[in-house]
């Protein structure tokens, strides 16, 4: 992967006052901050001349044509369709430094829904991605990465007027995460309802999404329409809020936005920090508090605890599954790897949601997915295969 020297970039202020206690969630903070907006002209001058027209002549009307569509035939019986953002993460080559102090960055494909789609495919499952990127070199690179990882990208769209989103992420010496986003606006924010591949959504076993796509129009309306189409077709809805406060106008709007679609989901994954945020500071380890977030139609509520594993709640049972201890290098995408692990198992056999022993086995598998991912830099590059996960589980038992 290419290295980017920080001297070539203009850095704005970043706020990160909320300290995460686990590596499974890329949680960022500062209740009133708009760090996503501090960089003016955040398209980084990636003009159309950057890419070669001969290389990308297969695009028309913002849609992906045959040359960059998913490589494999989609298995509709266990298909997981992931909706939302796909972007470029820039991860520093040295940990423990603030963003402005990092000597160089390694670029890596990312974006939570896209991470989940690739994670499922790498585990041998069937997945598709629906979202929008810029009609620029990064956008086409991301489309190619989905194809290379056997993710169906027929639902991917390109925007000629906005750039692919960029995110810079690092972990400082004091444990605080720092994020800086270039999306002012980025192409993922501009997906329109008319651009949705509704047939693909209706074919899914599971439709997975986050909350970032709810922040602005027109993507918010596209998100709601996609979710409704999936629900009407009998598709299971999976929701990982993936809170990124700097992207929302305010903490209150983030809380309201995340909870606005809460009761439609069948499966919800949240972190300890997100429980604190959504409950206005209540104890995330108190089962009575967590149960307040359990709505009547929910089939499974998952709480990730980083290296400590996860908790699970259903109508019939609840419990905790311990995690696998590793030496973390980069926690980016660990929660997405966990989601990919559990959704790959549920998509293959939905009945495990009612069988506690089998659910616990699936969650051990998901915990291992997250643990392996933190041992390498970047999200998508670090997502594991089933063989790697099974090996890790065997070593943990030995």
From TrEMBL:
Pathway: Glycan biosynthesis; starch biosynthesis. Transmembrane segments: none annotated. GO terms for biological process: fructose metabolic process. Its EC number is 2.7.1.4. GO terms for cellular component: cytosol. It comes from Helianthus annuus (Common sunflower). One of its GO terms (molecular function) is fructokinase activity. Keywords: ATP-binding, Carbohydrate metabolism, Kinase, Nucleotide-binding, Transferase. This is fructokinase. It comes from the Eukaryota. Coiled coil: none annotated. It catalyses: D-fructose + ATP = D-fructose 6-phosphate + ADP + H(+). The keyword Kinase applies. It is an enzyme of class 2 (transferase). The keyword Transcription does not apply. Belongs to the carbohydrate kinase PfkB family. May play an important role in maintaining the flux of carbon towards starch formation. CDD domains: bac_FRK. Residues 79-385 form the Carbohydrate kinase PfkB domain.
């Amino acid at each position: 992967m290419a290295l980017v020297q920080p001297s070539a970039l203009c850095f704005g202020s970043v706020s990160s006052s909320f300290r995460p206690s686990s590596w499974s969630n890329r949680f960022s903070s500062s209740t009133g901050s708009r760090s996503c907006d501090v960089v003016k002209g955040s398209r980084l001058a990636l003009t159309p001349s950057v890419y070669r027209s001969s290389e990308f002549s297969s695009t028309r009307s913002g849609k992906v044509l045959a040359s960059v569509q998913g490589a494999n035939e989609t298995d509709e019986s266990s298909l997981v369709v992931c909706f939302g953002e796909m972007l470029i993460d820039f991860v520093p080559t040295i940990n423990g430094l603030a963003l402005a102090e990092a000597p160089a960055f390694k670029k890596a494909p990312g974006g939570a829904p896209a991470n989940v789609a690739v994670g499922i495919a790498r585990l041998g499952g069937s997945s598709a991605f629906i979202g929008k990127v810029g009609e620029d070199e990064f956008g086409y690179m991301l489309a190619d990465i989905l194809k290379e990882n056997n993710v169906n990208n027929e639902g991917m769209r390109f925007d000629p007027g906005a750039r692919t989103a960029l995110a810079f992420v690092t972990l400082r010496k004091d444990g605080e995460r720092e994020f800086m986003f270039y999306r002012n606006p980025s192409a993922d924010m501009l997906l329109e309802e008319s651009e949705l591949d509704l047939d693909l959504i209706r074919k899914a076993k599971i439709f997975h999404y986050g909350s970032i796509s709810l922040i602005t129009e027109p993507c918010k309306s596209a998100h709601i329409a996609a979710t409704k189409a999936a629900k009407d077709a009998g598709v299971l809805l999976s929701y990982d809020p993936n809170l990124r406060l700097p992207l929302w106008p305010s903490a209150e709007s983030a809380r309201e936005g995340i909870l606005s679609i809460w009761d439609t989901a069948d499966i919800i994954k949240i972190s300890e920090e997100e429980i604190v945020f959504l409950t206005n500071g209540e104890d995330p380890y108190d089962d009575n508090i967590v149960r307040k977030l359990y709505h009547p139609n929910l089939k499974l509520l998952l709480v990730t605890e980083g290296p400590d594993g996860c908790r699970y709640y259903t109508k019939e049972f609840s419990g905790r599954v311990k995690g696998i201890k590793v030496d973390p290098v980069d926690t980016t995408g660990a929660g997405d790897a966990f989601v990919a692990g559990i959704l790959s198992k549920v998509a293959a056999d939905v009945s495990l949601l009612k069988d506690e022993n089998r659910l616990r086995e699936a969650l051990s598998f998901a915990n291992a997915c997250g643990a392996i991912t933190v041992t390498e830099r970047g999200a998508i590059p670090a997502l594991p295969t089933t063989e790697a996960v099974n090996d890790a589980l065997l070593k943990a038992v030995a």
